[in-house]
Amino acid sequence: MSDMKKNCNDNDGFIESFIKSPQVKQLLRKREYCFTDFQKAAIIYHSNVNLPQMHHSLRVIADNTCDEELKAQITELIDQDTKSYDRFVHDSKGYIYKLIAKEEESDGETFWFDIGYYDNGTEPKQAGTGSGGAFRIEKYLIAHVDDKHPGKERLNRNIYHSPVDVWYFDEDGMAEKYHTIETRQRCTDDMKPNGRESFENAFIAVPNPFDEGDVVRDINTGFEGVVVTSRDEWRNLCDMATDGRHTLDWNDACIVVNDIETDFRHEHVNPIYLELIN
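and the corresponding structure tokens:
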């Protein structure tokens, strides 16, 4: 089986788990559409699941695929994530950790507020997990020691202002995502060094049931708006992604949705995360 051959094994289970749009699900099943392992891996990578769940789903693909390059990419990704977390927690000498909790108001607004500072990576994780809500931990490099200023003022003077690591956790303490300048040196260009496309960045073309004028909701964020991108424009975009003359990535695989109340705001959303509301 070539790396681009469709894989229909448990295709319905994959669609149910990772394609959030009811309309896209319906269209995929109507067409009996099958994804390649490469496409599945890309969609899983960008799904709204925590890192342990993402790693588990990617391992299932790696264990069963005939695409050796994809298997290597998945192994590399999971290995890098694991090493990044271990270094984040255990390489604490010369660093300070800040725990920040997430709070959502009744009107939907989200606020982050500081909980405390720690000299190791274990305590803020335990404190955040016990807080009952989502949280993030920022790791800062200590710039110098200055005992002339008291308390928090002294701390703020002693650390570099940009964190070297930021890890986000859900209310159960499960890692969701992270940003780091220490260890995330993995190639994130559209093409791998050997010329093979990276599944994390790939443009994935899916059947799109939405058309210009449809009123939709982003299932992940709740944003509501009117579709601006026509089906013809979507088809042209998908053709560009495969014609060999254009370099498009995951972020390009979106349709434009204007705010339902004002034209001054719009979002770019992948069709797999939209649902009709009219």
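(Above: one complete record from the training split.) Helices lie at 11-18, 22-30, 37-45, 51-64, 68-90, 122-129, 151-158, 231-242.
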